[in-house]
Amino acid sequence: MSLTNEQQEQLRLVLAHEYRRCDQAFLDFLDHSTNQLGLGWSKENALSTYDSYARFLHHLYEFYVGCFKRNKDSLVRISHTELDDLFQTEAEKIMGLHRWRIERGDADKLENHISYYETPVPEEFAIDFRQTRNRIAHTDLRRSGANDALTLPEFFEKHHKFILILYEEPYGLWHVRAESYDWGEIEKFGKTVNKRTSNQNSLSIKEKVSNFIFYGKIKKAIFSRRKNGS
Question: How far apart are CA 65 and CA 90, in angstroms?
Fold first, then answer.
């Protein structure tokens, strides 16, 4: 059954949000990875670097699954086998698009040399992407390398180049400014959380100060515990 107009609009909203989450995770990854260069290696930052890249992969994968459903005009679950074919084809298509733009002279001035896009996409790319995404999203022993499974460091060394092209290609279409977009029920969560703040207009000065001090103490206690490693 084809998507209704309402479902198409809802899917468009969810895709825009998923790409935003993907983009934010990638920016977090860049932040943590460059911190290691400037401040030196630490276990804390190493874990943050891992987690941000894992979130990036997870949201990128989910974004494309949503796009594939949109292209099929259906919300029916897509099998793993078909997803593997779709991801593999998409990566190869985007690599070809880059070569085509360069050959036509339509590429961005900051584009890589055409030889960068002449590297064939590994046949196991899509399967590795799916399995790695699953291992970092679930409590899976293979995340630690059990059963000789591909780990995230190995995936990064092997496939990061192709992950980047999947991330960069839809940027112009799906990256939207938060303030210029109607996020519907998604942004309603923030409004719900902030409701207490907006209701403070009816509070007395004493009550406002009391609330401020109370939440200040909570944040201070949390930060203190984290700093002390407890």
Answer: 11
CA dihedral 103, 106, 110, 116 (to 10 degrees): -30
pLDDT tens, residue by residue, 185-207: 877 787 777 776 555 555 565 56
Task: Write down the domain spans for the chain.
Answer: 5-193, 202-230
Over the stretch 121-148, which tens digit does the pLDDT of each residue have? 999 999 999 999 999 999 888 888 888 8
